UniProtKB/TrEMBL annotation:
Lineage, opening ranks: Bacteria, Pseudomonadati, Bacteroidota, Sphingobacteriia, Sphingobacteriales
CDD domains: DHQase_II
Keyword Disulfide bond: no
Binding-site residues, substrate: 71, 77, 84, 98-99, 108
Residue positions of the active site: 22, 97
PANTHER family xref list: CATABOLIC 3-DEHYDROQUINASE
Annotated positions for site Transition state stabilizer: 17
Catalytic activity reported: 3-dehydroquinate = 3-dehydroshikimate + H2O
EC number, as in UniProt: 4.2.1.10
Gene3D superfamilies: Dehydroquinase, class II
Function: Catalyzes a trans-dehydration via an enolate intermediate.
UniProt protein name: 3-dehydroquinate dehydratase
Gene name of the record: aroQ
Species name: Solitalea longa
Pathway: Metabolic intermediate biosynthesis; chorismate biosynthesis; chorismate from D-erythrose 4-phosphate and phosphoenolpyruvate: step 3/7
Amino acid sequence: MKILIINGPNLNLLGKREPEIYGSQTFEQYFEELKSKYSIIDLEYYQSNIEGELINKLHEIGFYYDGVILNAGAYTHTSIAIADAIAGIKTPVIEVHISNVHARESFRHHSYLSKNCKGIIVGLGMDGYRLALESFLK
Ligand code: DQA
């Protein structure tokens, strides 16, 4: 099984960025743990701060991989283009947010992406990526 985790803008700063909201672990640390725990899965990670690069990556893998776990960061709340890319590919996408976006500013309450995703995991911290992986395994 081939799964890609995609993180969008500012998520390269995990560990340093607002640790009271996002925790103090870097994504690279977390990803290594995940990879060793789920060694049966062909698991990859991609991060970009650029909207078009996220779309290019979805197009590139979106007809071959078994699943995408996507945290599009703030593009979640703004990007019709990423929503269209998710709708246009075959690979199912699970949307993940580390923080509970519904307990935060109202501009974070709406996602353009959710309706095109298989499911959504919100507010469970970094563990959300693992839960999405478990869901793909089933
Ligand atoms: C986030 C929530 C977004 O509102 C925010 O812009 C992020 C991270 C999360 O994982 O909680 O960058 O997607």
